[in-house]
Amino acid sequence: MSSLINPLIWDDGVLKLLDQRKLPLEETIVECRTHEDAFNGIRDMVVRGAPLIGYTGIFGMALFAKGNRNTSIEELQKAADYLNSSRPTAVNLNYELRRCVQIAKDLKSSEGSLENLEKEFVKFGHEQLEIIHTHNLSMAKIAQKDLEARLGKKKFRIMTLCNTGYLACGPMGTALGVIAHLANNDQIEHVYASETRPYLQGIRLTSYELKKQNIPHDVVCEGSFSYLMKKGLIDAIFIGADRIVRNGDTANKIGSSTLSIVAKHYNVPFFVVAPTSSFDFESDHGDQIPIELRDQDEILFCKGQRLAPEGVSALNPSFDVTDANCISGIICEKGLIDPVTKENLLKVTGRN
Ligand code: MRU
């Protein structure tokens, strides 16, 4: 296996991000020295993927604490709100930033000062990177067991969309973590990686990861969903999530909902794999999820070359919401939510 490059490293007060905009052709690092740099890294998609956006938020708070030794809880809250405004859909960012503010409040009441805040945030960030690895492995094992029982076989042809691997999570991955785990156990016959227009996370990033891990795959375009399933080429589909709300509706990369509808039509099991940090227990329904609208030039241009006639505009929603009734199961570190109902979601996650 070729070496996997860590997408996020804290190196002596500098946050180093693998520049995912340049992959797969160049492996370069962007250095963040201020929380504004971290904000730009998230907004400009140097770093992306729901869990990794969350961890960048934590280390962004560490950068703020480093540059503002005499800060207050109010200032920290402002920094958290600022970082949270970088991208709206993945709830992980909000979740981690809220926890950072809580850490600061706890530190203030226990030590009476915020002097050690940078150290606390860095420790917290590294702990989360370890925890997500454990969670991803648990989710992969749950998926493996369910798939074997559901399909009555040991080797699978899996489809996925966007990038949900270690580039999106730090260690391992969610949906792509399932695929990597199956591959480690010689249980992958083939993977179909959807190219993921317009930002091309599938063809650029998922294919980059699969190739590094020697996992056999083809890149396919979004228009081929029906062709592939009608031909019986897909045993199951695994995607990640940016936000799962209480009724199981799930926001993920644009095209996920279309994929789920085609899967339901052809009776192909469709799974969402996401840690509970991607769950938004404050929202009841998918309609409440803010959907990021990105620059139209991501559609209109390819590598600086305009594709559409001059004067033509584009609409670029970056995510869509898959209806809970199109999802066969949601896998989180606490177990499998199947069927996907509000009651089951609360029961498996232990929330109310
Ligand atoms: O716009 P991106 O690349 O940040 O979108 C990423 C996705 O939609 C992923 O599927 C999702 O964040 C889950 S990553 C484990």
From TrEMBL:
Q: What is this protein called?
A: S-methyl-5-thioribose-1-phosphate isomerase
**Family annotation (PANTHER family):** METHYLTHIORIBOSE-1-PHOSPHATE ISOMERASE
NCBIfam families (alphabetical): eIF-2B_rel, PRK05720.1, salvage_mtnA
User: From which domain of life does this come?
Assistant: Bacteria
**Enzyme Commission number(s) of this protein:** 5.3.1.23
- InterPro entries, per database record: IF-2B-related, IF-M1Pi, IF_2B-like_C, Initiation_fac_2B_a/b/d, M1Pi_N, NagB/RpiA_transferase-like
The keyword Acyltransferase is annotated on this UniProt entry = no
- List, in alphabetical order, the GO biological process terms annotated in this UniProt record: L-methionine salvage from methylthioadenosine
Q: What species is this protein from?
A: Halobacteriovorax marinus
| Any GO MF annotation of the entry | S-methyl-5-thioribose-1-phosphate isomerase activity
Write out the similarity annotation.
Belongs to the eIF-2B alpha/beta/delta subunits family. MtnA subfamily.
Could you tell me the keywords of this UniProt record? Isomerase
| Listed Pfam families | IF-2B
What sort of enzyme, by top EC class, is this?
A: isomerase
